[in-house]
Write a structure and sequence with these properties.
Elements (H helix, E strand, L loop, with lengths): L8 E5 L6 E15 L22 E11 L2 H13 L2 E8 L4 E7 L9 E8 L2 E7 L5 E2 L15
Antiparallel strand pairs: 1-2, 1-4, 2-3, 4-5, 6-7, 7-8
Length: 151
């Protein structure tokens, strides 16, 4: 796999050209493991013996991003609860593709969040963003309390 910026990872349900877009990922963690089978026995002369071509290959993907709609969120929740194995297609920014049968074992959704910046003795700036990171308009209440004295 050539070096890629890693900014774009598309998750699609299904395989091939008929796969439908489910989500675009902002952050990802991608792990590939190949477990070995130790076949060492008493005639191995004290050397470890591994069984060639055996073992379990495991791909784990953890990602956060933007679902393409509320239908996809409901679908992911249902697939997670059913513990079903489904065919997915991952498309990377550098045109690499990984297709296979995956099980969604966890699904989390979150909403708006606040970013506080410009902190000073006389105030601060609050910007609210939605789960896609786009600024949104919100009304909020806050209370300022002072303790001690300013030096």
């Amino acid at each position: 796999m050539p070096i890629s910026k890693g900014r774009t990872l598309l998750l699609k349900l299904g395989t091939g050209g008929s796969a439908t877009l489910v989500a675009a990922m902002r952050t990802t963690k991608f792990t590939v493991n190949g477990e070995l089978v130790d076949a060492t026995h008493k005639d191995s002369n004290g050397m470890r013996t591994l069984l060639d071509g055996a073992g379990v290959a495991k791909v784990t993907i953890s990602a956060s991003g933007l679902l393409s709609g509320s239908t996809q969120a409901t679908d992911f929740i249902n697939r997670t609860l059913a513990r079903s194995l489904d065919n997915y297609r991952l498309e990377f920014e550098n045109s690499d593709i990984l297709e296979g049968s995956f099980q969604c074992v966890s699904f989390e959704a979150s909403g708006d969040y606040a970013v506080i910046s410009g902190k000073s003795r006389s105030g601060f700036t609050v910007q609210f963003k939605n789960s896609a990171g786009t600024g949104v308009s919100r009304t909020y209440d806050w209370v300022a309390r002072g303790y001690g004295r300013e030096l």
